[in-house]
Design a protein that fits this description.
- It contains 22 helices and 18 strands.
- The chain has about 525 residues and is an alpha/beta fold.
- It folds into three domains: about 30-225, P-loop containing nucleotide triphosphate hydrolases (Rossmann fold, 3-Layer(aba) Sandwich), CATH 3.40.50; about 305-375, no CATH class; about 390-530, Trna Endonuclease, Chain: A, domain 1 (3-Layer(aba) Sandwich), CATH 3.40.1350.
- A hairpin with a 2-residue loop joins strand 9 and strand 10 (about 365-370).
- The protein is globular and about 80 Å long.
């Protein structure tokens, strides 16, 4: 019998380019034509790019390292093998490291680990390590010695996760200021010695341009929104046709789909990231897509591996439900800058991969949206488990029953038994001490069951607490704490919260909801036509 063909899948856990190629197990989707363009002597040689976690930044840096080291045998059959790459003839010493190795629980431990990192770089370059004085001075000593020792008189520096040490101290502003001051001095040595650096690329999740970190790196060219590199990280829909076609075919066969249906399903879950307003090209999350192809299931793989520490820590400090930002307008400047402790939520969610560019309104203004089903899932279930530090076990039965009721009978089925049961199941450790907190759990529950609901929406005379759209109509909610459903409904009607929807075809209803703190539950909701 003919031996079954062994299919190689795109990597989901190997970010070492030589190991990926030599191991022969994983599939490398060729990006070397773009890397050649990126690293060409004619291009800017000091670069920065931000992308969400699990988008292949580490694999990209490993590939660039192999290129500059002249390891041509690894690139046989890839685009760059046919190009006049300088590394084939004049390899460079490459220093590729991640700043996550310098993360510490305290400022002192951060300094200790940063110094250890410099020591390891000196050992790699076989140059003396002094170990005295500020760690930024130690780093400069390393750079000068490594450049002097290089056969080409220049070195290549590749830095991953440059922003990780800052993320650790978002809830400790005094320590954060000290850490970023050290990082400013540390990174500034790259600028001072840039003449001896043939190529520098730094990557991270965020671009903290208001931080003193980046004032020491103002020589870097930021290519995060460059149209030329919109598809540098991530897989395009065209790459699902080729070179990932056989992987999509295996997925399709397992799920009893044809190729077109399988591709459409995969794209709905993992595609939709647009990183440049000047290019309409979009990409899939490469790790999530790779896992779906290998495992054969559409699922949320982001939640376990894609979260940014900085994003999660900042989201915990705000009151907004992230999914309510779908459709938000933002300017280029708003997305491009931010301070770690005050970065606007839209910028944080965009840079973290929870939102992406959905529409270009004008040259400087964009409309953001949730990129795909995977992130929509993360913004609902992930919001509960990661941001509120609680699980969903207490809501599981209520969610299953409410989803079924919503599909079969519509909104009316939710407004009695299901909604009251959901609040009855809220654990005591989940704080509900205000109208805002009660409304938060109401919105979360509705999102988790798949209801088409959005948070506060403006009318001419005020804001409705929530708008829920269903096949039976539009429901305008007003929420109260320690009052009555009638008071809630009368306020909504008195301020004409339903006004923006009254000219449409579907019927419009007011819904008054009240949370009673004495019973830790809601009263029977009151519904009336608008």
């Amino acid at each position: 019998m003919e031996e079954e063909k062994k299919i190689k899948f795109p990597t989901t856990g190997t970010y070492d380019f030589p190991k990926l190629i030599l191991g022969g197990e994983g599939k490398y989707v060729d990006k070397t034509d773009l890397l050649y363009q990126l690293a060409s002597p004619k291009a800017d040689a000091q670069l920065f790019i931000s992308r969400p976690r699990r988008f292949g930044k580490s694999l990209m840096l490993s590939t660039l390292q192999a290129m500059f080291e002249g390891r041509r045998e690894l690139f046989q059959g890839l685009a760059i093998d046919k190009l006049p790459w300088e590394g084939w003839e004049t390899p460079y010493p490459v220093y590729n490291f991640t700043m996550s190795s310098a993360v510490g629980e305290t400022y002192e431990l951060f300094i200790e680990r940063l110094a250890k990192l410099v020591n390891e770089l000196c050992a790699q370059a076989d140059v003396p390590y002094d170990g005295t004085g500020p760690v930024s001075g130690q780093f400069e000593d390393f750079l000068k010695a490594a450049i002097k020792k290089s056969p080409t008189g220049q070195i290549v520096v590749l830095i991953d996760e440059y922003d990780e040490p800052v993320a650790k101290f978002l809830d400790d502003l005094e320590t954060l200021k000290k850490v970023r001051s050290v990082l400013h001095d540390f990174y500034e040595k790259l600028k001072i010695n840039s003449g001896g650096i043939r190529f520098l690329l730094m990557t991270g999740v965020t671009k903290l341009t208001k931080l003193s970190i980046f004032s020491g790196l103002n020589h870097l060219m930021d290519i995060s929104m460059s149209p030329e590199y919109a598809t540098l990280l991530g897989y395009t829909p065209a790459e699902l046709d080729e070179p990932l076609r056989e992987n999509v075919e295996v997925f399709a066969a397992k799920n009893k789909m044809d190729f077109a249906a399988a591709k459409k399903a995969l794209l709905s879950w993992y595609d939709g990231y647009r990183f440049s307003p000047d290019s309409e090209k979009k990409v899939c999350n490469p790790v999530s897509l790779g896992k779906a192809l290998k495992i054969g299931n559409l699922a949320n793989y982001w939640e376990a591996t894609g979260q940014s520490t900085m994003v999660v820590n900042r989201l915990r400090t705000v009151d907004e439900i992230p999914a309510d930002l779908n459709g938000l307008a933002a300017t280029r400047t708003q997305l491009d800058v931010g301070a770690a402790e005050t970065m606007p939520l839209p910028a944080l969610l965009y840079q973290g991969g929870y939102l992406t560019i959905k529409e270009v309104i004008d040259t400087n203004t964009f409309r953001l949206g949730i990129p795909n089903n995977e992130i929509a899932n993360s913004l609902s279930e992930g919001y509960v488990s990661s941001l509120l530090d609680v699980g969903l076990s207490d809501w599981t039965e209520q969610l299953v029953e409410a989803r079924a009721g919503l599909l079969a009978k519509g909104v009316e089925s939710l407004l009695g038994k299901n909604l009251k049961a959901a609040f009855a199941a809220v654990p005591h450790e989940w704080k509900i001490e205000s109208e805002k907190e009660a409304k938060r759990y109401f919105l979360l529950f509705m999102k988790l069951i798949g209801a088409d609901i959005s948070g506060e929406r403006q009318s001419a005379r005020g804001r409705a607490d929530a708008i829920l759209k269903d096949k039976s109509g539009v429901y305008v909610f007003e929420f109260k704490y320690g009052k009555t459903p009638r008071e809630a409904l009368d306020q909504a009607r008195g301020k004409d919260y339903a006004g923006p929807w009254l000219d449409g075809d579907p019927p419009v209803f007011y819904v008054g909801v009240n949370y009673d703190p004495s019973t830790r539950g809601i009263d029977d909701p009151l519904t009336e036509p608008a």
